[in-house]
Design brief:
The protein is 35% helix and 21% strand. The chain has 478 residues and is an alpha/beta fold.
């Protein structure tokens, strides 16, 4: 693998990730070919990046790992070309690419040669998008143009001491790193939505291994199944109590409680991630009113509305699932659109993207209405009208334009309190119940909360052979 430093850093990460003894290096003898600024006098073993392939639980993957001991891990021409070649091989074989980033940025001594190679890498990543899963983990610095690399991938993990930035915090007018470290793992995971998980090196490698086991290897061949040892008809006795926290509810219905959450710290009012149902990987989207900690105490609360960041998070996730033929389950419990200055600036576009993502997705789509389903916020959450194949609702759910009391106040603004109360009850019966929605065909079946697991498993089994065409076009523009 090159020098001792390489074996201790970049190579060590690869060996810890892959099945023991499975890594095969490619391009280990490559070095920098540029001679400007006497670059030839500096040793650049493997040109600062180890590339090759191996297996994770028997699944083929391609990997690259930047070596900060070689010119600080700076990306030069051959460095970028080695990564591009790994992508080319992965595309031919239909296997995921996993990249470990620890880099000082662009190699200044190589100028336009490095820029040209960088651009080729961007293009290759864009071509691979939706064809093979792409995963990055940031263990050191990831700045400037290199920050586009994780942004072009599907999933990104970040070590606690890692840095991701386009501009360093001190270069932003009015900001200093002491005021707001915009490059930190906390900022990038909580505010930008770029990072799926933050942890130690060991935790990140374990997360990637788990994720690879749940994902298809490419967009045509699916190996994301495992034997199900859980009871397919298992009752979920605590579902009603768990409904407020989508993450807990999804764990309740998943085989063995398996739930791999994505973008954990971003837009926490919306939950996205992967579960298993009868051994099959299913993408899951759920609204969230409360965050329960490990002791079942409420750690955080939301108002149940659909936020701009939550809609964007869900839309991106649904598009990923559709690209890789992963069925989608939604647990809908939404009170309306979020009202804030930020959301007013961004929510229309984000909600439109979510509606477009569900409408365009041709994979099996199942929706379970667990609580409130009000207004257009409900419509864009995988409703029957935007393309859900099966819609279930709990008896206690509410489906309609808005809360009955508010509707009565609007429709009977001149009425007294007694009249408004009477009309609110009438509105609830006629326009706000799962039974009224089912009578119109907007809900397929009203189910008991405890039966949710067996119903969604049955629905996805029925939808397994689903085929659905879309209008001929290059791509949508929403």
């Amino acid at each position: 693998m090159g020098n001792t430093a390489t074996e201790q850093a970049a190579g060590k990460r690869i060996n810890a990730l892959l099945d023991a003894g499975s890594f095969v290096e490619i391009g280990g003898a490559v070095t920098a070919r540029n001679t400007d600024f006497n670059l030839q006098e500096q040793k650049t073993p493997a040109d600062g990046v180890i590339t090759g392939y191996g297996v994770i639980d028997g699944n083929l993957v391609y990997v690259y790992s930047q070596d900060a001991s070689v010119l600080g891990g700076a990306v030069g021409e051959m460095h970028a070309k080695k990564i591009t070649r790994i992508y080319d091989m992965a595309m031919k074989m239909g296997a995921p690419v996993i990249g470990f980033i620890d880099c000082a940025g662009l190699r200044l001594q190589e100028g336009t040669d490095a820029l040209e190679a960088f651009g080729s890498l961007y293009r290759t990543q864009a071509m691979a998008s939706g064809v093979i899963p792409q995963i990055t983990a940031v263990f050191g610095a990831c700045g400037g143009g290199l920050s586009l690399i994780p942004a072009l991938t599907d999933f990104t993990f970040m070590e606690e001491q890692g840095k991701i930035f386009v501009n360093s915090p001190n270069a932003i007018p009015g900001n200093r790193v002491e005021k707001c470290d915009t490059s930190s793992a906390g900022f990038q995971s909580e505010n930008t939505g770029l990072v799926d998980g933050v942890g130690t090196e060991e935790e990140i490698l374990a997360e990637i291994r788990t994720l690879i086991g749940m994902l298809p290897c490419n967009n045509e061949e699916d190996v994301s199944y495992e034997e199900c040892t859980d009871d397919l008809n298992r009752l979920c006795e605590n579902m009603e109590g768990a409904a407020a926290d989508g993450a807990v509810a999804l764990s309740q219905i998943s085989d063995g409680g398996v739930f791999f959450e994505t973008k954990k710290a971003f837009a926490r009012d919306m939950v996205t991630g992967f579960i298993r149902l009868n051994g099959m990987t299913v993408g899951a989207v759920a609204n969230r009113w409360k965050v329960f900690d490990e002791e079942a105490n409420v750690a955080e609360e939301f108002d149940g509305s659909l936020s701009a960041n939550g809609a964007q998070k869900a839309a991106d996730f649904v598009r990923f699932c559709d690209a890789f033929n992963i069925p989608v389950l939604t647990l809908t419990n939404v009170s309306g659109f979020k009202a804030s200055d930020y959301d007013e600036k961004h929510l229309a576009a984000a909600a439109a993207r979510l509606a477009g993502a569900f409408a365009e997705a041709t994979v099996p789509k199942v929706n379970v209405i667990t609580g409130k389903a009000f207004g257009n916020a409900y419509v864009v959450m995988n409703s029957k009208s935007t393309g859900a194949d099966m819609v279930y609702a709990w008896p206690s759910s509410q489906i309609g334009m808005m809360e009955p009391a508010l509707a009565a106040k609007i429709m009977y603004a001149d009425g007294d309190a007694a009249t408004q109360k009477e009309k609110a009850a009438e509105y609830a019966a006629l326009q706000d119940s799962p039974l009224s929605a089912a009578a119109r065909g907007y809900v397929d079946t009203i189910i008991q909360p405890a039966d949710t697991r067996k119903y969604v498993i049955g629905a996805f089994e029925m939808l397994f052979t689903k085929r659905e065409e879309r209008p001929a076009k290059k791509h949508g523009t929403v």
